[in-house]
Design a protein that fits this description.
CATH topology of the largest domain: Rossmann fold
CATH architecture of the largest domain: 3-Layer(aba) Sandwich
Number of strands: 12
Strand content: 15-25%
Largest sheet: 6 strands, mixed
Distance between the termini: 35 Å
Bound molecules: 2'-monophosphoadenosine-5'-diphosphate
CATH superfamily of the largest domain: NAD(P)-binding Rossmann-like Domain
Number of helices: 10
Structural class: alpha/beta
Number of domains: 2
CATH class of the largest domain: Alpha Beta
Oligomer: single chain
Amino acid sequence: MTKLAGLIGFPVAHSVSPALQQAAFDYHGLDARYEYWETQPEDLANRIASIRDSEVMGAQVTVPHKQATLEFVDTITDDVRALGACNVLANEGGTLAAFNTDVTGFVRALKEDAGTDLKGKRVLLLGAGGAARAIVLGLAREGIASLVIANRTVAKAIEVGGVASGLVAEIGAVPFEGKAVAEAAAGADLIVNSTTLGMSGVGGSVPLIAAAIPSTALVYDIVYNPPDTPLLMEAKKAGAQTLGGLAMLVYVGAESFEQWTGLKAPVAVMMAAAQKALAAKTRH
Ligand code: ATR
């Protein structure tokens, strides 16, 4: 019996997750297939119920279903509870377990691909959406010294900052543009973009220009398509170190694979497949 896993979201056609998961299944010689499970909100309950079938190993969950999915699962981890969102489901003999691997995937890329120790770092985070919540939890646990969240809607920045409360000594929320964000950027060791600005198909203005980026900072854009986002190009102009979003995507996927199969994820194979799939998508 061919085992199945898939990506639940809307839309999902842009994703390279199927390519990197299939590469991992094939690497281990598993009789398994990864599918695009594009799902409208009104079909979510049925879609998730189908994951209990014995041939289904689990699913990855993306926008806009990371919160709503929780209503239909049996068990959740502490991270899922803290964030109110999940990105992975595993079918454990008909019981549905929900995980959040965004937190660990985000931090692992910083450690392994940028060689960063987050302890004591001053961080500017752009954006306060769903991805930002997981990022804030990851940063807070790693012992950063201060966090400023800049968002178009400041009330959301304040709310997301609450995820770090009690863990980070200084937490600030500022509007997305203007003096306060420029000041936070000037004093930052790490600048993270979690907004959708710069994403292929979304576009928009660059969140920070080179003149506002210290050459000593690490600039991390979790957008992975295009690989050279407008923000990363500004960061390079400023002489800053850069990190794109593909490593996080691969680590998030690797952890999902390990939950489903109990096997070690072939990270290098998954990264190569992701890069190839991304290059093919950018050519079209
Ligand atoms: P995700 O789950 O990927 O984080 P999201 O929850 O829709 O996606 O969040 C998108 C983020 O990008 C938000 O911080 C959003 O700002 P608002 O909270 O003010 O909406 C930000 N964003 C999207 N478009 C933007 C734009 N044109 N300018 C500034 N910020 C933008």
